[in-house]
Amino acid sequence: MQGDGDASAVDSPAFLANLHAGLAQFWGEQMQEMEVLEISTEQAFKVHNDLPLARIKRIMKSDEDVRMISAEAPVLFAKACEMFILELTLRSWAYSEKNKRRTLTKEDIQEAIEKTDVFDFLVEVIQ
């Protein structure tokens, strides 16, 4: 798993072990969900998503290099976005609990982003 690394305060080994265990469980559940997904038609798969496909398609088309978008692309992007949001929330919640709070704050999200290498592309957004 890619790092929970170079931020100013170092997380304890117990916290990191707990976070990694939670993430392993999360991704295991995601894989299991995908393996047993019973979608009989393309339309059924499209309505399975919680994010608005029309908005995702509009965002994709905002790139001037994008000419055509297959029907499956927004559906896959929606699922990828959902998984991204879920992982970021899980990581943020771990920092909220670490600070002995039961409320997720923007500081928890910032800390999760700063301490996760794969979220480096978001660091400028939260500054």
Q: Mind explaining what this structure looks like?
A:
This is Histone-fold-containing protein. It is found in: Nucleus. It comes from Tribonema minus. Belongs to the NFYC/HAP5 subunit family. GO terms for molecular function: DNA-binding transcription factor activity, RNA polymerase II-specific; protein heterodimerization activity; RNA polymerase II cis-regulatory region sequence-specific DNA binding. This protein is mainly α and 127 residues long. The protein has a single domain (13-126), classed as Histone, subunit A (Orthogonal Bundle). The chain contains 6 helices and no strands. It has helices at 13-35, 42-47, 53-61, 72-98, 106-114, 123-126. Helix 1 packs antiparallel against helix 4, helix 3 (53-61) crosses helix 4 and helix 4 (72-98) packs across helix 5 (106-114). The longest helix is centred in the C-terminal third of the chain and has 27 residues, at 72-98. The two termini are 25 Å apart. The model is unreliable at 1-8 (pLDDT under 50).
Any chance you could write out the topology, listing elements then pairs?
Layout: H1 13-35, H2 42-47, H3 53-61, H4 72-98, H5 106-114, H6 123-126
Helix pairs in contact: 1-4, 3-4, 4-5
Taken as a percent bin, the fraction of beta residues is under 5%
The count of DSSP E runs of length 2 or more, i.e. the number of strands, is 0
Rg, Cα atoms, Å: 17 Å
How many H/I helical runs? 6
Q: What separation lies between the terminal Cα atoms?
A: 25 Å
The coarse overall form would be: globular
Which architecture does the CATH hierarchy give at level 2? Orthogonal Bundle
Helix percentage range: 55-70%
CATH superfamily: Histone, subunit A
CATH fold annotation: Histone, subunit A
Q: Write down the CATH class.
A: Mainly Alpha
Pattern of helices and strands: HHHHHH
Structural class: mainly alpha
Mean pLDDT: 86
Give the uncertain stretches in residue-range form: 1-8
Major sheet size, sense and barrel closure: none
